[in-house]
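Try this one yourself first.
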């Protein structure tokens, strides 16, 4: 494992110049790993309804069930099922199945997902100011 430079507090974001300067503190192999990870994340979040599913968790008060998400997001069941599986496989959601009749499955965000939640707050703040 390589020594990583100290990462500044990113809660308020970075300017373009600060982001460029931070990126340049990493060795080329680490820069490549970071770029691959970001590309993979963007591909995942670009899947149909993935952002909506994670956004629901960002503003939820606890675990969500499939039916909660289906009702809130109006997403086709097969699409929602695929997104939940993708997000679980990526380590962003934990899936807990309970041995009950009828079956109950709950999803909770992992620490990795929760670290993305400020992104949703920033997007909502942006939407207050701008419109597409």
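Now uncover the answer:
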């Amino acid at each position: 494992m390589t020594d990583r430079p100290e990462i500044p507090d990113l809660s308020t974001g970075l300017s373009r110049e600060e982001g460029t300067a931070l990126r340049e503190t990493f060795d080329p192999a680490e820069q490549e790993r970071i770029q691959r990870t970001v590309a993979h994340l963007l591909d995942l979040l670009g899947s149909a309804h993935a952002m909506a599913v994670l956004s629901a968790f960002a503003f939820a008060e606890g675990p969500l069930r499939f039916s909660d998400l289906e009702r809130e997001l109006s997403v086709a069941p097969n699409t929602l099922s695929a997104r939940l599986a993708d997000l679980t496989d990526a380590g962003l959601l934990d899936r807990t199945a309970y041995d009950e009749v009828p079956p109950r499955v709950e999803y909770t965000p992992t620490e990795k997902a929760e670290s993305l939640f400020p992104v949703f707050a920033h997007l909502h703040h942006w939407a207050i100011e701008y419109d597409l």
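Discussion: Residues 13 and 121 are 12 Å apart (CA to CA). The mean pLDDT is 90.
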